[in-house]
Amino acid sequence: MIGETLAVCAALAYGLAGVLIVRGKATARGDNGAFLSVVMTAVMSGLLWLGWGTVAVGDVVTAEGLRAVGIFALAGVLANVFGRQSMYRATEMIGAVRAGLLRRLTPLFVVPCAFVILGDIPDPVTLLGGGIVLTGVLIYMRMPKRMAPSAPGAGLGLALGVLSAVAYALAYTFRGLGLDIAPDAALGTCIGALVGGVWILVRAVGGKGVRHGWRHITADRSPHHLQAALALTAGQLLQFFALKHATVLSVSVLGTLEVLFSALFVWLITRSEPIAITRLLVASVMAMAGTALLVL
């Protein structure tokens, strides 16, 4: 149950991060700290690898090691560029709870990804658990119109939330493949964050020019942005370590608990978005039931 426990802790960190992202948007002058969160992930995971890593530098430069590096790099682009950036924008547009719910579609996309890439064949219980979780998400998403976000960017926010789920599903799958070759979560996280950070930097500088591009990705360093970056870093590291002890599907479905934590933090900290309590309770029970079936 070590992997499952780590996955739940990751969901807690992600739930807090979503609320902090919304909170930081009010003072954002650039990317709302998204690049900062990737840099923090690279630094912290790199320190973990240097201090307690299980894969040495010599092992990395072998043919198999370089193959793992390539897989981790691909997973890093998927998670840190497409997944994280889309998640930031979706959270800003539609709120932490609804953005978190859309990321709960990740298990739906993980099933075909894991089958095609890893050869993992889900059993009927896994499919039933995932189906229950998905049904709970859909129940909440069909909330009354008076409670749904009415901002002009709500439609785009929903689309970005789905894109984030797809990107994370692919990232989880490739991370599992990389860990089979080089079983060092800290190394894999560091490589992924470094490659993702370079991608974001090059895209910002190329699209906005050196001065404006650099300013866009480094301007936001307030306490709220730092806290969000730290929470996201903790979530990603915990999730990566969870993959060493649990299956891709288990980690993904346990991540559905993120929305429960998001709702709790919204209520405790910001009260920044409407929450359909009855629907959320139903969705929560279904998420827990689906998760229980998955990890039996």
From TrEMBL:
Record key words, sorted: Membrane, Transmembrane, Transmembrane helix
Cross-referenced InterPro entries: EamA_dom, EmrE-like
Gene source species: Roseovarius indicus
GO cellular component: membrane
TM spans (from-to): 6-22, 34-53, 65-83, 95-118, 124-141, 153-174, 186-205, 249-269, 276-295
Protein's name in the database: EamA-like transporter family protein
Domain of life of the native organism: Bacteria
Domain EamA: 2-140
SUPFAM superfamilies membership: Multidrug resistance efflux transporter EmrE
Disulfide bond keyword on record: no
